[in-house]
Specification:
Bound molecules: zinc ion
Structural class: alpha/beta
Number of strands: 15
Number of domains: 2
Number of helices: 12
Shape: globular
Radius of gyration: 20 Å
CATH architecture of the largest domain: Alpha-Beta Barrel
CATH superfamily of the largest domain: Metal-dependent hydrolases
Largest sheet: 9 strands, parallel
Distance between the termini: 19 Å
CATH class of the largest domain: Alpha Beta
CATH topology of the largest domain: TIM Barrel
Helix content: 25-40%
Order of helices and strands: EEEEEHHHEHEEHEHEHEHHEEHHEHE
């Protein structure tokens, strides 16, 4: 028996997010038709966000005195977060991650790419945290957990020994390869690119040449601007070099990085980027949803794609006066509550 669902509203369709009053016909989780309907309710329908870089485990370290330099806070093995994680019980860890996932679901996020500490048990803890929820984590394991998730997440080429072997092993077993690179300087970017990663995280201090290399080799970049500012590795529009990244044609995804000091909310990340870097609404929304290609998904609302979108009712707030729903979503989404998620995990 086929499962049919009809969702109607102002739909942000396709790659250009053209707003069309329509009925979306969903059959067994796949968008089968988008039919024009001038009578559709004024509900906004937006493609689901994908948070392209998180560390959900450090939910348990939320807003501890996190004002030191990056190395003191999050660099393995002795950074503050690693000490707090080591002290947490498995139960605390799982319920912390689950609470963050539930928070993301309430904000239109249907999946995330997480760097998961703690080896195989760490990967298993995140799977447990997401169990039964319409949420898909792409897990990048570390510290022995590399083959237990979808990929391997390298903290930085400068922090890890035996890198050649780890990467080779991950590749041999069909795993994705992700690197933090260029977070505090440009020194660990070339060495990361040597491994032809599936995704680079940060590139905050990447040069034009390094970015061009990412474009030429089709390597997407997950930028995390709020985290960069919070950790003091960025303080101007030049870091991360968003404008240059766009000029060169980089594929960009948005991530929020460590839950311990940045909320995993993509609305907030978009609003920040729009204010600081003046990035346009279409580009920001593309970056906010694009990371789901890591799972082989089509992130857009179009026929044939997996149905992965959320609704938002502007009628219950001042948003009903918006002359431009897409712009309002980017600039004012922080305060609004998401209506219904149509997520097909
Ligand atoms: Zn990170």
């Amino acid at each position: 028996m086929k499962k049919l669902e009809l969702v109607s509203g102002l739909v942000l369709t396709g790659e250009d997010f053209e707003i069309l009053p329509s009925d979306i016909v969903v059959e067994d989780g796949i968008i089968r038709a988008i039919e024009a309907n001038p009578q559709a309710p004024r509900t906004w329908i937006c493609p689901a966000f994908f948070n392209a870089h998180t560390h959900l485990g450090d939910t348990v370290a939320m807003d501890c005195a996190a004002d030191g330099p990056l190395t003191d806070l999050v660099t393995p093995p002795d950074g503050l977060k690693h000490r707090l994680l080591a002290e947490a019980t498995q139960n605390e860890l799982v319920s912390g991650m689950r609470a963050s996932i539930e928070g993301m679901l309430a904000r239109g996020i249907s999946g995330c790419a997480d760097f998961r500490e703690g080896g195989p048990a760490g990967v298993a803890a995140l799977r447990e945290a997401a169990e039964g929820l319409p949420f898909r984590p792409v897990i990048f394991g570390r510290e022995g957990g590399e083959l237990y998730g979808e990929g391997i997440g390298i903290s930085s080429t400068r922090d890890v020994a035996d890198l050649d072997q780890l990467i080779e092993n991950a590749r041999k077993n069909g795993r994705l390869v992700a690197f933090h690179a260029g977070e505090r300087d440009l020194e660990d970017i070339d060495s990361a690119l040597q491994y032809d990663p599936d995704i680079i995280i940060h590139a905050t201090h990447a040069t034009r040449e390094q970015l061009r290399e990412c474009v030429d080799r089709n390597i997407p970049i997950a930028i995390c601007p709020r985290s960069n500012w919070r950790l003091g590795v960025a303080g101007s529009v030049h870091h991360p070099p968003l404008k240059l990244m766009q000029e060169l044609g980089c594929t960009l995804f948005l991530g929020t990085d460590n839950v311990m000091f940045v909320s995993p909310d993509i609305f907030s990340e978009m609003a920040f980027c729009h204010t600081i870097y003046k990035t346009g609404p279409e580009d920001l929304l593309r970056a906010a949803i694009g990371g789901s290609v890591l799972m082989g998904d089509d992130p857009y609302i179009r026929i044939g794609a997996r149905a992965n979108f959320f609704t938002l009712d502007p009628g219950s707030s001042a948003l009903r006066f918006s002359r431009n729903p897409l712009r309002s979503l980017i600039q004012r989404g922080e305060g609004v509550s998401v209506g219904k998620n149509v997520f097909n995990a």
